[in-house]
Design goal:
The protein is mainly β. The protein is about 0% helix and about 50% strand.
Length: about 140
């Protein structure tokens, strides 16, 4: 059987690193994807478009960091990229300085969206953090 040396395959020698996307969510500062927003409130079911992940990226982490807990804590947050869920809905809670959510690695691309659920978000401060690897980089 012949030996195969993948060290010489150009696509295996591409430089890759983990990139990180972050977005801060506060009710008074968001623009809702469906065009509906009430000043100071992110309504239940609203879909917030946060940014874009490059084509053919591999998501290696997706989480919500609760900077300042919400008053009621019953609200949920779910993250998707290009329509593919990368973090299932999790209760945000009232505690501050905690991380919520986990993900499994997925190859995706497209718009990053956060969907709210259970109750309106009228206060608090959330930081969305998505870590990904771009697979379509040039050789260098």
């Amino acid at each position: 059987m012949a030996a195969v040396n993948f060290k010489l395959k150009n696509t295996n020698n591409e430089k890759r690193k983990v990139s990180v996307f972050t977005a801060n969510i506060q009710p008074a500062t968001v623009t809702v994807a469906d065009g509906f927003a009430t000043a100071g409130t992110v309504a239940t079911g609203d879909v917030i478009t946060l940014g874009t992940i490059p084509d053919n990226s591999i998501i290696v982490g997706a989480e919500v960091f609760v900077v300042t807990g919400l008053t009621t804590g019953t609200q949920t947050a779910k993250l998707a990229v290009g329509g593919t869920e990368v973090m299932a809905a999790v209760a945000v809670g009232t505690a501050s300085n905690v991380t919520k959510g986990t993900t499994t690695k997925k190859k995706v691309s497209g718009a990053i969206t956060l969907t709210t659920g259970v109750a309106d978000m009228v206060d608090g401060n959330l930081q969305v953090i998505i870590s990904y690897i771009e697979t379509d980089l040039g050789i260098g």
